[in-house]
Write a structure and sequence with these properties.
Blueprint lengths: L2 H16 L3 E6 L2 H5 L2 H14 L6 E6 L11 E5 L4 E4 L4 H12 L11 E2 L4 H4 L17 H6 L4 H9 L2 H11 L11 H10 L6 E6 L8 H8 L1 H15 L3 E6 L4 H16 L15 E6 L9 H8 L23 E5 H13 L1 H5 L9 E8 L5 E6 L4 H8 L9 E6 L5 E4 L9 H6 L8 E6 L4 H15 L5 H18 L6 H16 L3 H5 L2 H9 L1 H9 L13
Parallel strand pairs: 1-2, 6-7, 6-9, 7-8, 10-14
Antiparallel strand pairs: 1-3, 3-4, 4-5, 10-11, 12-13, 12-14
Helix pairs in contact: 3-4, 7-11, 7-14, 8-9, 8-11, 10-11, 10-12, 11-14, 18-19, 18-22, 19-20, 22-23
The structure holds flavin mononucleotide (FMN), iron/sulfur cluster (SF4) (2 copies) and FE2/S2 (inorganic) cluster.
One iron/sulfur cluster binds next to helix 19 and helix 21.
Family: Belongs to the complex I 51 kDa subunit family.
Pfam families: 2Fe-2S_thioredx, Complex1_51K, NADH_4Fe-4S
Protein name: NADH dehydrogenase
Length: 550
């Protein structure tokens, strides 16, 4: 395919869509599918067929639309472009939806079926990475192309040198979305300059944090965006082979990525001489086997090479010595998802969002005690208060906000006193948490903080690969101490022991898992120490969660 053919495909797809009197976009993300989205889509198709509307009404699967807990969702796009979003659809409701939209005037629908898209849940978000999610059909390459897909790659291959692509990413200020927030452009420049005949690009879609599903959603909803981002990276750093490492628990994401790769290969958007240039790039999928530590880059590379997924010390960093000894660029799935718009609209445009040191937007999986849960994308620098009370609609049941857990097992809990802190990499770290990959769990006054810390520590204990002693034994000892505290069997000295172990793990563990495992304990000790004291000295759980044997 060349540039003109890409444009022709895009125009053909847009006119095809415009020819429909009405289009039903059914969310086909995992949360909506598990709520019965597949049957809803089927019922819509049947209702359309029953009225012989197939030529003028389209029913398609699309990706995640955001408020996942209200699924299955259906978006209806009328001929004049007007959109209506419906929640909690059922096959029975689907037939009435077809009547109301495809045969206007025949029936009216209850107002409560609709989700108002001018509500703060939507209006306070800025969608860059997720701009195609819920709009493109992840099973059709043409659908992505119709939204401008692959035009950034076509542009870069023809008009930009690899150095210029790297510079654009530097200018954007994008930082890695996998957790650590390392500047993406800097990493790409290091990779570009790394000597080596063979180089690799890897998309990290391991996503092991409990409750997080940003990367799964992007792979399921807009797989070509990830592929295009990877291809731009490969061109920029001089790689010809890429891997998408998908968590074993994500079969739908793996399937959609696989199909997208095959479709892109068939059209010459991946493979040999892409866009009739001299650039070659192949991508293969590798499936993880459920170990959290395999998200760590050195363990991930071992896993790709067919070895046991255990970390090794860095340096050498993957950009110096990665897969089979060759320089390897590893970025998170969401990081890659940001690249096509950055190349298309420019790094300066992207840097216009966010704060000085944390540019752009971030996707969060908003969960826990808020009225609206789901997948959100917000400009960095937004306050936690805006996320919880505007986007999330506040705490249900009139209860009080207690804390927000960010960064999963490597992160921490932010208390109510810091609700107005702008969310960026530095501020979260200063509060003893981390931005992490985007897990965001909101807790109300029924959560017990030592109990929350124990949950994450048990997770780290289970997921420790056992290679180094501080993490292998330290996590077990910390769980024992936390168990004593929450079980009402602790003595005051146990708090000191717990803090000593935190420091030991932080300073002597081999990889990030052990080094950050103490964070949930340290942050809850910092902001909610009185709860630990109450458990130990008074044998009392202020939140009423723990059984202290009284
Ligand atoms: C225990 C552990 C688990 C990790 N899991 C993930 C993961 O699931 N996804 C991810 O992108 N990065 C994960 N990381 C971070 C990666 O090692 C790496 O920094 C990241 O993929 C780089 O991409 P980025 O610069 O785009 O963020 C993990 C790190 C550690 C220590
Ligand atoms: S006994 Fe020691 S050396 Fe042997 S497997 Fe266990 S930790 Fe490793
Ligand atoms: S810190 Fe934990 S997960 Fe990392 S290498 Fe050591 S034992 Fe394995
Ligand atoms: S999966 Fe349907 S709205 Fe997120």
């Amino acid at each position: 395919m060349n540039r003109t053919e890409l444009q022709t495909m895009a125009e053909a797809e847009r006119s095809r869509q415009q020819a429909f009197r009405c289009r039903f976009l059914c969310c086909a993300g995992t949360p909506c599918l598990s709520a019965g989205g597949g049957a809803v889509q089927q019922a819509l198709k049947q209702a359309v067929a029953a009225r012989n509307f197939e030529a003028s009404v389209e029913v398609v699967g699309a990706g995640c639309m955001g408020p996942c807990s209200r699924g299955p969702l259906v978006r209806v796009i009328a001929e004049n472009g007007e959109e209506t979003l419906y929640e909690r659809m059922t096959p029975e409701k689907a037939a009435r939806l077809v009547e109301a939209h495809a045969a206007p005037g025949s029936t009216t629908l209850p107002e409560e079926w609709r989700i108002a898209e001018d509500s703060p849940f939507f209006s306070k978000q800025t969608k860059i990475v997720l701009s195609g999610s819920g709009r493109v059909d992840p099973e059709r390459l043409e659908s992505y192309v119709g939204e401008g897909g692959y035009s950034a790659l076509a542009h870069a291959l023809r008009e930009m040198t690899p150095e210029e692509v790297c510079e654009e990413v530097v200018r954007s200020g994008l930082r890695g979305r996998g957790g650590a927030g390392y500047p993406t452009g800097v990493k790409w420049n290091l990779m570009r300059k790394a000597p080596g005949e063979r180089k690799f690009v890897v998309a990290n879609g391991d996503e092991g944090d409990p409750g997080a599903y940003m990367d799964r959603t992007l792979m399921e909803s807009d797989p070509h965006r990830v592929l295009e981002g990877m291809a731009l990276a490969a061109y920029a750093v001089g790689a010809e082979q890429g891997y998408v490492y998908v968590r074993g628990e994500y079969p739908l994401a793996a399937q959609r990525m696989e199909r997208a790769i095959r479709a892109a290969e068939r059209r010459g958007l991946l493979g040999h001489r892409i866009f009739e240039s001299r650039f070659n790039f192949r991508i293969d999928i590798r499936i993880g086997a459920g170990a959290f530590v395999c998200g760590e880059e050195t363990a991930l590379m071992a896993s790709i090479m067919g070895r046991r997924g255990q970390p090794v010390p860095r340096p050498p960093y993957p950009a110096q010595r990665g897969l089979w000894g060759a320089p390897t660029l590893i970025n998170n799935v969401e990081t890659f998802g940001n690249i096509p718009p950055i190349i298309q609209r420019g790094g300066t445009w992207y840097a216009g969002y966010g704060t000085e040191k944390s540019r752009g937007t971030k996707v969060f999986a908003l969960a826990g005690k808020v009225s609206w849960t789901g997948l959100i994308e917000v400009p960095l620098g937004i306050t936690l208060r805006e996320i919880v009370f505007d986007i999330g609609g506040g705490i249900p049941g009139g209860r009080a906000f207690k804390a927000a857990q960010t960064g999963g097992p490597s992160g921490g809990c932010i208390p109510a006193a810091h609700l107005d802190t702008p969310m960026d990499y530095e501020n979260l770290q200063a509060l003893g948490s981390i931005m992490g990959s985007g897990g965001l769990i909101i807790m109300d006054d029924t959560s017990c903080m030592p109990d929350v810390a124990k949950f994450f520590m048990e997770f780290c204990m289970d997921e420790s690969c056992g290679k180094c002693t501080p993490c292998r034994s330290g996590t077990v000892q910390m769980v024992r101490l936390l168990d004593r505290i929450t079980g009402g069997r602790a003595v005051p000295e146990d708090l000191e022991r717990l803090e000593d172990l935190c420091m030991l793990l932080k300073e002597t563990s081999l990889c990030g898992l052990g080094q950050t495992a103490p964070n949930p304990v340290l942050s809850t000790l910092r902001h909610f120490r009185e709860e630990y004291e109450a458990h130990i000295r008074e044998r009392r759980c202020p939140a009423g969660v723990c059984d202290l044997g009284n």
